[in-house]
TrEMBL record:
Domain Ig-like: 23-118, 123-209, 284-369
Alphabetical list of Pfam families matching this protein: fn3, I-set, Ig_2, Neogenin_C
Name of the protein described by the UniProt record: Neogenin 1a
PROSITE patterns, sorted: FN3, IG_LIKE
GO biological process, alphabetically ordered: cell-cell adhesion
Location of the protein in the cell: Membrane
Family (UniProt): Belongs to the immunoglobulin superfamily. DCC family.
Upper classification of the organism: Eukaryota, Metazoa, Chordata, Craniata, Vertebrata
One GO location term (cellular component): membrane
Length: 1170
């Protein structure tokens, strides 16, 4: 309350011992830093001052206690050293926002700008470089996708040596390596390396082969297209466009970003690429910094601070390190300047202007010194106190004081000063009389119903007015030219009558429709006004100043700044689904001060999934049924399109519902009373075939018709606010459409007494989405409807994210807390469906869990081996075993196949084991033709779409010592039967035996002669080619799982298994480690298809040679020796059958009749041997 005003006549002077301003500012301020877990990091801070300064650090707004901290310490210059950064999933003590605070005792405190310390994640390759063949002169892009925060640590190596970067070979901001105009020197093995982020981690190597240019024209293809990018002004931006083809082209643009390049530019290389949108943000910059000020007590001072930036920075003021809270005596004027009214001694210190936007933050400080009143001056006597001080007029907002001349004025030119203050407040205000001898003053802008009280008078002050002086005339030829939407250029000439030297000019300008005029001083005959409002009319005038003061003003001139794109989206946008194929859109124009010109139209963008379209109309038709569309609206001026509204979803109906009648009654209505509100929830009508446009809620004390509220048809609950405690309310709910309102449903509730705490819950987060990032990481995002539109969190609320998988069914939820609207969940299982939900906690209030979002992690290679591997012998077939197993416990994806490894030497290298591939849906497999009385070891490896998993432990199995007695008896019986059939024609048998023997000897001799002509060099080339084509593993070509063609050979996976008796230590080809026989034999080979038809019957085949020259084109088979017993049986059967079957039919009939001798696994079969 205001006390009665006190008249105090004072006179004072500034003595000679005035304190000087003390230099006190930051010479180094902390900046954003990316730290590495376990490594040390340094946040720089140093102060320039005359006196020693105490430096402390704040983290997330609170002072750090470093007295007993072993990891963190403040260095001598004030920098903060963290010797070992700690960071884990649930403990992140070092990550946050830091600020340096410097204090000098008896002088003041200043704070630095803020800096964010982030901790790099664990290096993880999300994608690996891939091998490729590139033609000379072509371009290629090697991708290497890592954690986004580790991109800056990526470097590339070629053949394990650093890649030399230049204009032809360069890296992109994403970490990818671009090779343009490829040469033969670019061939080699490439890998990307993550350095300086903990232990060095390298990617897989990718081989780049350089092919000669064929000269043939190839279609141009974009390997890399421009991407939308946002950069801070002053930074460089790389706009890549990489093309392959012949003839080829490659363009990449690097520029120092300025506000002039913001917009849409298009780059192309013969074919057109997509449009590139470049947005420029600027960090805050000072146009005017606050200045040091001397002032007396009870006076008013203004600290000026003018800042520019994009987006527009927010400004706050700090005094001695503490935020300035606006009050009656501390006011923010013109959105940036600080006005301090009625100074007191405690206002002395350092004031800082802090500006911040998304691109950064800056600070600037100024010192305020309160001057002491000097001793009384002047040699003559001073006036006595004024007499009869009275409040002659008292109103709600002003007081008029009058008084009489002092009894002893001691002169004629006496001026007066009135000091006044609010009762109980020592902060005084001062008002001076405007003319000597005037004995009244009016104090304005007071608070109603307040009191003022008298105080003792100060020393008297004698002031004499100055004589009238000559001032300049008006400045001629004043012109104003509009340069841009926010800039006007002014120019004028010197006054014709200057009456002395012109010291400066003052420009007065005012926005049309406002009463407040603003001014600024200039020293030239022209000036460019910036920071004006767009498409706004301004008036300007100029006044010249000389040593005597201001001159005559020019006439006002008016101009309007240019229009620009709207700076705000349309307001109150609504979307109404009309039927299954139509949506109605409604909106209002942007705010008047954000239109920046005449609105010429509106642009509506809508999309379904990732597809986008544009339209300029209100009514969308021809849409798809039951489909969710996202829409937003933006305003258009002649300059372009302004910002759009947020994306809003609207889902068309599954079918065209009936709207010829009103909706049915809602199926349920529930109410939950609180102290001053009632939460109403409901379910829609059971008849879903009638259109529901929304719901009408009526409520009142004793009657439901006092108030009505309409809500959207999708809404299922509403909170009725501002109710009276302990009152009986009747509530009604009706569904409505364009025909009218349906039948209501009624409910009543009594609000709780005032003494009962209000348990109103917070609304749960909405729009929860789960974005899968990798095989073990999902990013969860959401929105909070209780936050402002910009979704900026300003209070102490936090969010709890929970997640789990339904396999197994009793899995418990895991939770994590966060203070942002996103959370990245790591450590998940690959190829697993997870559900996520979020709740918000504010103080002691907690919301319910949000609706769930689901996400399935990507696949990864199996992390465990197949389990329960068993090996058993097949009954009646001692040379055949059956391998059984179960899938891996951690398959990490769909198993697409298995590989069975077996060997007689458990310590053999893995590439020396025989392998059997099996398709992924089988859990058993037969392996035939094993050696009797031999110990085998078996391992199994599973694979999925991402690669091979680990091998199982070796399982030992020993085959029986001899053939089963049943089989031996059967074989002998067949032999005797065949022999008995020949007893009638001994002569014919002898003839046939002699003929076949002679024919066979001829074939052996001819084949041996042909084979020996092959040189050792040719044999080595063939062996090397065979090894390169088939890999180091020895695939056994008998797998049914490989789905062979109708031939009993699979030409893609089979290979020769030669008996190489070379004495070399590392032969090019080695025999299978599974011994079939101890004899060194030369087999005679016959190959048949499934019908028994002969395909090959040619001469002698030497072990180690290929069949490709003997067989049909396109097939390749390498013989594998069968057991000699089957060859003997076949030969005997052939000789005996010839007695009664004609020769042409003997071969065909016998081969088909003796098919059971063939290997059941479709291998090439050795049918006889000599």
């Amino acid at each position: 309350m205001m006390r009665n005003p006190v008249l105090i006549l004072s006179y004072f002077f500034i003595g000679s011992a005035v304190r000087n301003f003390s230099p006190f500012q930051f010479s180094t301020e902390p900046s954003d830093t990316l730290a590495v877990r376990g490594a040390q990091t340094l946040l720089n801070c140093s102060v320039h001052s005359e006196f020693p300064a105490k430096i402390e650090w704040k983290k997330d707004g609170s002072f750090l206690s470093l007295a007993s901290d072993d990891r963190r310490q403040v260095l001598a210059d004030g920098s903060l050293l963290i010797s070992s950064v700690v960071h884990s999933k649930h403990n992140k003590p070092d990550e946050g926002v830091y600020q340096c605070v410097a204090t000098i005792d008896n002088l003041g405190t200043i704070i630095s700008r803020t800096a964010r310390l982030s901790v790099a994640g664990i290096p993880r390759y999300l994608s690996q470089p891939e091998a490729a063949s590139v033609r000379v002169g072509d371009s290629h892009v090697l991708n290497c996708e890592v954690n986004p925060d580790l991109v800056s640590f990526i470097r590339w190596e070629q053949n394990k040596e650093p890649v030399e970067l230049n204009q032809r070979v360069f890296t992109l901001p994403s970490g990818a390596l671009v090779i343009s105009n490829a040469t033969e020197a670019d061939a080699g093995l490439y890998r990307c390396v993550i350095d300086n982020a903990g232990p060095t981690k390298t990617s897989e190597e990718a081989e780049i082969q350089i092919l000669p240019e064929s000269g043939e024209e190839r279609t141009l293809e974009f390997l890399l297209e421009p991407q939308h990018v946002s950069k801070v002004i002053g930074e460089s931006v790389l706009l890549p466009c990489v093309v392959t083809g012949h003839p080829t082209g490659m363009h990449h643009q690097t520029a120092s970003l300025s506000s002039q390049i913001s917009g849409v530019d298009r780059y192309s290389a013969i074919n057109r690429s997509r449009a590139l949108h470049s947005e420029s943000d600027t960090s805050p910059q000072f146009l005017k910094k606050p200045a040091n000020i001397y002032a007396h007590e009870a006076t008013d001072v203004t600290f000026e601070c003018e800042v520019t930036g994009s987006p527009a920075p927010t400004i706050k003021w700090v005094k001695n390190g503490d935020a300035v809270i606006p009050s009656d005596y501390f006011k923010i004027i013109k959105e940036q300047n600080l006005l301090v009214l009625g100074l007191v001694k405690s206002d002395e210190g350092f004031y800082q202007c802090l500006a911040e936007n998304d691109a950064g933050n800056v600070q600037s400080s100024a010192q305020l010194i309160i001057l002491d009143q000097g001793s009384r001056g002047g040699a003559g006597p001073t006036p006595s106190a004024p007499r009869d001080v009275v409040a002659s007029l008292v109103s709600t907002r002003f007081i008029k004081l009058t008084w009489r001349l002092p009894a002893e004025p001691h002169g004629d030119d006496v001026t007066y000063s009135v000091y006044y203050s609010l009762e109980g407040n020592n902060r005084e205000r001062i008002v001076n009389t405007s003319r000597p001898g005037e004995m009244q003053v009016t104090m304005q802008n007071l608070m109603p119903d307040t009191k003022n009280g008298p105080r003792e008078s100060s020393a008297p002050l004698r002031v004499a007015t100055q004589p009238e002086v000559q001032v300049p005339g008006p400045a001629p030829n004043l012109h104003a030219v509009v340069m841009s939407p926010t800039t006007v250029s002014l120019s004028w000439d010197m006054p014709l009558t200057g009456n002395g030297e012109i010291q400066n000019y003052k420009i007065y300008y005012m926005e049309k429709g406002l009463d407040s005029e603003q001014d600024l001083d200039v020293n030239t005959l022209s000036y460019t006004m910036t920071g004006l409002k767009k498409f706004t009319e301004y008036s300007f005038r100029v006044v010249a100043y000389n040593k005597h003061g201001p001159g005559v003003s020019t006439e006002d001139i008016s101009v309007r700044t240019y229009s620009d794109v709207p700076s705000a989206p349309p307001q109150n946008t609504t979307f109404e689904v009309l039927n299954s194929k139509s949506i109605m859109v409604r909106w209002q124009p942007p705010p008047a001060d954000a239109q920046n010109g005449e609105i010429t139209g509106y642009k509506i963008r809508y999309r379904k999934g990732t597809r986008k379209s544009e339209a300029f109309f209100l009514y969308f038709s021809g849409l798809q049924r039951g489909t969710e569309y996202m829409l937003r609206v933006s305003a258009i001026t002649v300059n372009g399109t302004g910002p759009a509204t947020d994306w809003t979803t609207a889902e068309t109906f599954e079918s065209d519902l009936d709207e010829t009648t009103v909706p049915d009654v809602p199926s349920s209505l529930h109410v939950r009373p609180l102290v001053n509100s009632i939460v109403v929830s409901w379910t829609p009508p059971e008849n879903q075939d009638i259109v529901v446009r929304g719901y009408t809620i009526g409520y009142g004390i004793g009657s439901p018709h006092a108030q009505t509220i309409k809500v959207d048809y999708k809404q299922r609950y509403y909170t009725i606010e501002n109710l009276n405690p302990s009152s009986h309310y009747v509530i009604t709910l009706k569904a409505f459409n364009n025909v009218g309102e349906g039948i209501p449903v009624y409910e009543s509730a009594v609000t709780r007494p005032q003494s009962v705490p209000d348990p109103l819950p917070i609304l749960p987060p909405v729009g929860v989405q789960a974005s899968v990032l990798s095989h073990d990481t999902i990013k969860v995002t959401w929105a909070d409807n209780s936050l402002p539109k910009n979704q900026k969190i300003t209070d102490a609320r936090y969010y709890t994210v929970r997640w789990k998988t339904n396999i197994p069914a009793n899995t418990k939820f895991k939770v994590a807390n966060t203070t942002t609207l996103t959370h990245t969940v790591t450590g998940l299982k690959p190829n697993t469906l997870y559900e996520f939900s979020v709740m918000v906690t504010k103080g002691r209030r907690t919301s319910t869990w949000s609706m769930t979002a689901h996400g399935t992690t990507f696949e990864a290679i199996p992390s465990s081996a197949p389990k329960d591997v068993t090996v058993v012998s097949k009954e009646g077939r001692p040379r055949t075993i059956i391998v059984n197993w179960q899938p891996p416990s951690e398959a990490n994806g769909k198993i697409t196949g298995y590989i069975i490894y077996y060997s007689t030497d458990v310590n053999a290298e893995v590439h020396d084991w025989v392998i059997e591939p099996v398709v992924g849906n089988r859990l058993t497999h037969q392996i035939q033709e094993l050696t009797l009385d031999t110990t085998y070891y078996f391992k199994i490896q599973a694979r999925n779409s991402k690669g091979m998993g680990p091998m199982s432990e070796a399982v030992q199995f020993r085959t029986p010592k001899a053939e089963s007695s049943d089989k031996m008896a059967n074989d002998q019986g067949n032999w005797k039967t065949d022999m008995s059939g020949t007893g009638d024609n001994h002569i014919l048998i002898i003839v046939i035996i002699v003929s076949v023997g002679a024919f066979t000897i001829i074939l052996v001799v001819v084949g041996a002669f042909l084979c020996t002509r092959r040189t050792t060099t040719q044999q080595k080339k063939k062996r090397a080619a065979c090894k390169s084509a088939n890999g180091s593993h020895k695939y056994k070509g008998n797998s049914k799982d490989l789905k062979p063609p109708d031939l009993w050979i699979h030409h893609e996976r089979l290979e020769l298994k030669p008996i190489d008796k070379s004495p070399e230590t590392n032969p090019v080809m080695t025999d299978t480690p599974i011994p079939r026989t101890s004899q060194d034999i030369t087999p005679f080979v016959v190959i048949t298809d499934l019908s028994g038809q002969m395909l090959t019957f040619n001469g002698v085949w030497r072990f180690g040679e290929e069949f490709s020259s003997w067989m049909n084109p396109g097939f390749h088979c390498t013989g594998q020796m069968a057991d000699s017993v089957y060859g003997v049986v076949w030969v005997c059967g052939l000789l005996m059958s010839m007695l009664w079957i004609e020769w042409p039919m003997v071969a065909v009939g016998l081969w088909y009749g003796q098919a059971y001798v063939m290997d059941n696994e479709h291998r090439c079969i050795l049918l006889m041997a000599f």
